[in-house]
Design a protein that fits this description.
Blueprint lengths: L3 H5 L5 E9 L2 E11 L2 E9 L5 E5 L5 H11 L12 E4 L2 H16 L1
Length: 107
């Protein structure tokens, strides 16, 4: 489960990541810094019917971002218990960020 403490503890070179599946839908969500005091959530959701949706919160304060994520996860109640991993913002994760940004800007 993601918490305000986890978001606020995130170093600028790190991301929080959640990967999960529920009711045939799969999702990958990351949280990263956009500035020292703001964060952004980026995600890719593939529904059971194979439709793919990209999500971007835009820059937000930690408390607003937590509300945004809770709203996103209302569709998957079980997802709120999936652990969030902290890791460095590596090249593979940066590729994911570019993929989501490109898709959300085009949409």
């Amino acid at each position: 489960m993601i918490t305000l403490h986890k978001i606020n503890s995130l170093a600028e070179h790190q991301v929080l990541e959640c990967v999960g599946q529920e009711s045939g839908d799969t999702f990958r969500i990351i949280v990263k810094h956009t500035s020292p005091s703001h964060y952004e959530a980026l995600g890719k959701v593939t529904l059971s019917n194979a439709d793919t949706h990209y999500q971007s919160s835009g820059p937000m304060t930690p408390d607003l971002l937590l509300q945004w994520l809770n709203t996103l996860f209302e569709r998957w109640p079980g997802a709120k218990t999936i652990p969030w991993a902290v890791h460095d913002l590596d090249e593979k994760t940066q590729q994911f960020v570019r993929e989501v940004r490109k898709a959300t800007e085009a949409g």
